[in-house]
Design goal:
The chain is an alpha/beta fold. 39% of the residues lie in helices and 14% in strands. It folds into 3 domains: 35 residues, no CATH class; 250 residues, Aspartate Aminotransferase, domain 2 (3-Layer(aba) Sandwich), CATH 3.40.640; 116 residues, Alpha-Beta Complex (Aspartate Aminotransferase, domain 1), CATH 3.90.1150. The chain is built from 14 helices and 13 strands. It has a 7-stranded mixed beta sheet with strand order 1-7-6-5-4-2-3, with helices on both faces. A 4-stranded antiparallel beta sheet has the order 10-11-13-12, covered by helices on one side. Keywords: Decarboxylase, Lyase, Pyridoxal phosphate.
């Protein structure tokens, strides 16, 4: 990769065309330009292979070799502009695949096909934008309520749509603090409520309880026509029916307005994508007929990646519900394995029930973080145990962490961080709480 970042392409980018030597250096490849480009791409492919072997810190499933079957379609431009359920004059689209994907999710999330509307997005952020935009258009003077551990796209949407945003405290698990929600709802009874519900927070994998939120709204005097709930289910939207024996964590049978899920997370895709779904009666609030494309414009992005719909359709058919259920079971078991291994080694760690996200102490070494593709927040980091993550990868990671930890803290000049406040005293193995746990026989 160093060859790429220091090569002729980067030099051209920074020269603004004024460096004659660099320009000539590029022109030297004119006789074998294809060979030059192939070398650059081959080097980049090698880089991606190496990064994939140590990819642990983000919500992405890299197990998608089956998608190579779709490579012939990359010869075509496919644009699903406008409403998925309406044709347009732009003939190069894959809307029939998109509608099939939407029908599958409508069944998963328990809403009748003729009552649902949705589209394949470019990812979870776009799905969140679409959901909050609908909430604002339906309740123009509504206030947005969201927890402090919500995905950053929620706060970005609040700024873009100029929504009054009330931030709610969270408990140790990352779940919303319902007493704080109640208090802040009661302070603003005169304005409708637009609620962002986290079906798995980004960093800790904490689940907001839909039933408790609806109950809190009702007890604070908010009738169904005075609140709108958007569910950010980026990772767990596909997993939710398989996580709880009591039934799905969320459903359109309850008083929710919209859901967003990412397609490149649990399901897997070689490109960012997702699904936004809402109730059909709501979408008229933002639909507008556009003569130029001869269809309705009612999506955030307008022109949309038509390949993404095919990729999602193909993966759903290859895996099926049984395959997804097996992936969920594997992720849960491997996450528990990692949590237990970290605790056995005296490393502060936490795993929420029904979660794939193992939170633990942040390594003090930047190179280690980069090597394992970890994401960090304060004194914490996490591993997101996705279907591509094997027990061997996790064992290699723990062994590497323990080996490096002996170097980081061996001299005694620095100590592992205390995470009692972030993940709870019982999960903290620092010099204070770790000893206390041993004294209590833990």
């Amino acid at each position: 990769m160093a060859k790429i970042s220091n090569g002729a392409i980067d030099k051209k980018d920074h020269s603004n065309g004024n460096n004659k030597k660099d320009t000539l250096a590029i022109e030297e490849f004119a006789a074998d330009r294809q060979g030059f480009l192939t070398k650059i791409l081959t080097d980049f492919e090698d880089h991606l292979i190496e990064r994939t072997r140590h990819f642990l810190g983000y919500h992405v499933n890299l197990d998608f070799n089956h998608l190579m079957d779709l490579s012939p379609l990359l010869r075509f431009h496919i644009n699903n502009v406008g409403d998925p359920f309406k044709d347009s004059n732009f003939g190069l689209h894959s809307k029939r695949f998109e509608v099939s994907v939407l029908d599958w999710f409508a069944q998963l999330w328990e809403i009748e096909k003729d009552e649902s509307w949705g589209y394949v997005t470019n990812g979870g952020t776009e799905g969140n934008f679409q959901g909050l935009l609908l909430g604002r258009e339906l309740l123009p003077d509504g206030m947005l309520y969201t927890s402090r551990e919500s995905h950053y796209s929620i706060f970005k949407a609040a700024r873009m749509f100029r929504m009054d945003c009330v931030i709610i405290r969270t408990v140790t698990t990352g779940e919303i603090d319902y007493s704080d929600l109640r208090e802040k709802l009661c302070l603003n009874k005169d304005k409708p409520a637009i609620i962002n519900l986290n079906i798995g927070t980004t960093f800790k994998g904490g689940f907001d309880n839909l039933d408790l939120v609806i109950k809190t709204l009702e007890e604070c005097g908010f009738s169904n026509d005075r609140f709108y709930i958007h569910c950010d289910a980026a990772l767990y939207g596909l997993a939710s029916p398989f996580l709880d024996e009591q039934g799905p964590i969320f459903s359109f049978k309850k008083s929710i307005g919209s859901v967003s899920v990412s397609g490149h997370k649990l399901l897997c895709s070689s490109m960012p994508c997702g699904v936004h779904m809402t109730r059909k009666k709501y979408i008229t609030a933002i639909s507008k007929s556009i003569e130029y494309i001869n269809t309705l414009d009612n999506t955030i992005s307008g022109s949309r990646n038509g390949h993404a719909s095919i990729f999602m359709w193909y993966s759903l058919n290859v895996k099926g519900r049984l395959g997804l259920q097996q992936d969920v079971k594997k992720c849960l078991m491997n996450a528990q394995y990692l949590r237990d291994r970290l605790k056995d080694e005296g490393i502060s760690s936490m795993l929420n029930e029904m979660s794939f996200v193992v939170v633990f102490e942040r390594p003090p070494n930047r190179e280690f973080i980069k090597h394992w593709n970890l994401s960090c927040e304060g004194n914490m980091t996490h591993v997101v145990v996705m279907p591509h993550v094997t027990v061997k990868m996790l064992e290699d990671f723990v062994n590497d962490f323990v080996r490096e930890k002996n170097i980081w803290y061996g001299c005694g000049q620095i100590q592992p961080p205390c995470l009692a406040e972030e993940i709870g005293t019982s999960n903290c193995c620092c010099s204070i709480h770790g000893k206390r746990g041993l004294q209590n026989g833990k």
